[in-house]
Specification:
heterodimer, A: 200 residues, mainly alpha, 73% helix, B: 106 residues, Helix Hairpins
Amino acid sequence: MWRAKGVEGSAVVLFAARFGTHDPWRDARKDGRLLSPIFYILAVLTLAGGLASVTLKHLVHCALAVTVAFAGLALLFLQLDAQFAGFAQILVYIGAVVILIVFAILLTRGSDLPKEGVFSKTWPVGLLIAAAVFAVLGWAVLQSVRAVPQQAAVPAVTVRDIGIALVGRYVLPLEIVALLLTAATIGAVIVAMHEKVRSR
Amino acid sequence: MIGATPLAGYLLVAALLFAIGLAGALTRRNAILVLIGIELMLNAANLNLIAFWRYGPHPEALTGMMFAIFSIAVAAAEAAVGLGLVISIYRHTNTAELDKISRMKG
């Protein structure tokens, strides 16, 4: 496909071949000293999506913004070489949770704007608490992360390994999660069921 | 530079996302937005787990990865029950605004 473009295409192939073998960012990542620029792009995307999802006025816009945040997080998981978790994130969050949120918005007529504004009366206190929590977390990270030894090599873990671990060492948690999901599904249906049906 | 080590960079992003989610859960009036804030906080914790798995000493043991996968499953269950509760409350009180739901106030 690249070659069909002629001279430009072959230049792209040469460029890719050169940087595929001598990727300076990958070398730096292997040393464990440097973050790739992709990380910064994804971090800004995720944080912007998260910020938009809690500040926008219309609930439907919030649902769209939280989709962006979830997608950015999935891409961050892929950037961390956790492919299975990344795709599970896309399937579960973008595929299921956002759809549930949109359904709930539509069922509760959340698209109507409240007259009193979207933030509660005590919003400065909430903002202060959140800022304090971030200050503590950031301080703890910056203080302690130098003491943690860091593995730079990319872990050689395949989905096959994950599957074997799930039915081997982690089989009991897997069963418990299956039970929890069943109970949650039944519970959600019972909770959201119409009141008259229950009283009969 | 602050984000000089990859682990610190990911942890700081997760901390910031957690704070954003907490701010959303504490300041918004709509119950669905509170749930979105909680989801953001859970996701920030997942990012921490995966980052520690990636840069920790024994990634082949898969502990952090498994923790994140189970956490995603539990978060999905929580979202289903939470939104069911919101719909149920809306049916009772005809509103999803948390300020107006004060029936249990003493």
